[in-house]
Amino acid sequence: MAHFLVAALYKFVHLPDYRALREPLFDFCERHEVKGTLLLAEEGINGTIAGPSEGVQAVLAYLRADPRMAALSHKESWAQEMPFYRLKVKLKREIVTMGIPNVQAQSMAGTYVKPDEWNALIDDPDVVVVDVRNDYEVSIGSFAGAVNPHTESFTEFPQWVQEQSGEGGLLNKKTRVAMFCTGGIRCEKSTAYLRSQGFEQVYHLEGGILKYLETVPSEQSRWDGECFVFDERVSVVHGLDQGHYELCRACRQPLGAADRASDLFVEGISCPHCYGKHSEEQMQRFRERQKQVELARSRRQRHIGVRMDKQPAGSVEQPGKHSDTAE
């Protein structure tokens, strides 16, 4: 029986006081034994949390008690083990980093399409279907026939749109575009961006891939593979059951059975995606960390590394290549 409730949540909403929200939110989560990562920015909140069911529900109720977040969207799944090592509540410039100012996701997002209506839309040959996730996510699963922009981060997506809108591009003279992502948040921003660029018929999968896998029967599914998630489960399949991928601790890439069988895979140190790409100093750190992991494992303890939960008061974290939570 699964013991931990996992909730992926987000809301685009104007939060000019977001800095003041961080400390009370962190303390409330900690009191209710909830872990995970929550991002706060002036444009809203985004994150994934996990813990005892009553604890997670208490946090959701706490957030929705703020009238601005009364309509907070969340999706639930279950995990056999706690999928997060620690609790983080971070201040960001954007809750999902596109790097384009004044993209009004709250008011300009495209048309929502419910999961049970998604198949009919993407089966239409006149619709361009775009996976707005990053390449490492797409590599383990996507909708059949969807376009992969091959981005390493969401900040590259606007440039891809500009390139593909030109002569001979995939979006050139296309009037209907359907987009999808893990939980829906990147789609809200990407569809708003497309609309700002003059695209009028833009759609996105309501609730994202997670809601689709939760609600659409596998025999009716257009999904092929597994869905990457930003926690220790690494991937999920239909019904939101845990998938079969693990994470390379050196480069954070998802690893399938073939990757783990490779001669280039050394647990905690390297994999076929990153072998030979790290400095000797980095490799030494990975080896030392893996020793500590194995020592904790031999003691039947969980290695969680250095506690990094709170930022200095009022500081806003700069975006990195791989965020703690993209959805």
From TrEMBL:
Region Disordered: start-end pairs: 296-327
Entry coiled-coil feature ranges: none
Keyword tRNA processing among UniProt keywords: yes
Isomerase found in the keyword field: no
PROSITE patterns assigned to the protein according to its UniProt record, in alphabetical order: RHODANESE_3
Record GO biological process: tRNA modification
Keywords: Oxidoreductase, tRNA processing
EC number assigned by the record: 1.14.-.-
Domain Rhodanese intervals: 123-221
Catalysis performed (reactions): uridine(34) in tRNA + AH2 + O2 = 5-hydroxyuridine(34) in tRNA + A + H2O
Sample GO molecular function, one term: oxidoreductase activity, acting on paired donors, with incorporation or reduction of molecular oxygen
Family: Belongs to the TrhO family.
Summary of the function given for this chain in its UniProt record: Catalyzes oxygen-dependent 5-hydroxyuridine (ho5U) modification at position 34 in tRNAs.
Protein name as annotated: tRNA uridine(34) hydroxylase
Organism: Eoetvoesiella caeni
